[in-house]
Design a protein that fits this description.
With 227 residues, the chain is an alpha/beta fold. The chain is 42% helix and 19% strand. The chain has one domain: Alpha-Beta Barrel (TIM Barrel), CATH 3.20.20. The strands form 2 sheets. Strands 2, 3, 4, 5, 6, 7, 8, 9 and 10 form a 9-stranded parallel beta sheet that branches. Strands 1-11 form a two-stranded antiparallel ribbon. Strand 8, helix 7 and strand 9 form a beta-alpha-beta unit.
């Protein structure tokens, strides 16, 4: 059973969190299963970026919130290739591009609709069978092919640490992600730009910020437990 916070507390949480964030960090409110009414409260408290994991849920919410015309929608969950076209229709950002196959599919579709989506490449710094994404060697090997995806705005990396790590280990994952982004940026690819690091969720976002995150994805911290 979900135990979301009252609307007034959601607004207070957002204000409190934003006061702690550097100007370089954008707060994305993760709204999976969050009622639309609380999303409106978040909007009134200054949130303009919503993160969803499921396409169908996002479609319903976007219809209910279509009067909020300055919202940016972020896909933060795994995207199957057969749903890539719909994702391009409804999301401005896709954080979870986790394979060359998916990147090439999005690139092909983006060319056909004359739209350049903004994407992050999901990387696994540590081996983790429970997560999607490239390992570091896989990503480095795929960079030449990714650089050919000229219809995508590839702007950085996304990572989620494995479960069960202690804080120093989590910080090490985030730091290695930043170092990997710097390594890629220094190679001067024509298409690949590494301006953003999408990393940090409710349980570890201060560590992510310490390591250089520019995009943090907070759900429970802002809205309470989904249940």
């Amino acid at each position: 059973m979900s135990s979301f916070l009252p609307a007034s507390q959601v607004a207070d949480r957002i204000i409190q969190v934003r006061q702690t964030l550097p100007d370089s960090v954008k707060l994305i409110a993760v709204t999976k299963q969050v009622p639309v009414e609380l999303m409106r409260s978040a909007y009134e408290a200054g949130i303009r970026d919503f993160g969803e994991s499921r396409i169908q849920e996002a479609i319903v919410k976007q219809m209910q919130l279509q009067d909020l015309t300055d919202v940016t929608w972020h896909l933060i969950g795994h995207l199957q290739s057969n749903k890539a076209a719909k994702a391009l229709e409804i999301f401005q950002w896709i954080h979870s591009v986790d394979s060359l196959k998916l990147a090439q599919r999005l690139d092909q579709l983006a060319e056909s609709i004359a739209q350049k989506p903004t994407v992050c490449l999901q990387v696994k710094i540590l081996v983790d069978p429970n997560k999607f994404g490239w390992t570091v060697p896989e990503l480095l090997a795929d960079l030449p092919a990714l650089n050919q995806c000229s219809q995508l705005r590839i702007v950085g990396l996304m990572t989620i640490p494995p479960y069960g790590l202690n804080p120093p280990e989590i910080l090490a994952v985030f730091t290695r992600t930043r170092e990997l982004a710097e390594q890629i940026q220094h190679q001067n690819w024509s298409t690949l730009q590494m301006q953003h690091l999408s990393m940090g969720m409710s349980e570890d976002y201060p560590l992510a910020i310490k390591a250089g995150a520019t995009l943090i994805r907070l759900g429970r911290t802002l809205f309470g437990e989904r249940g």
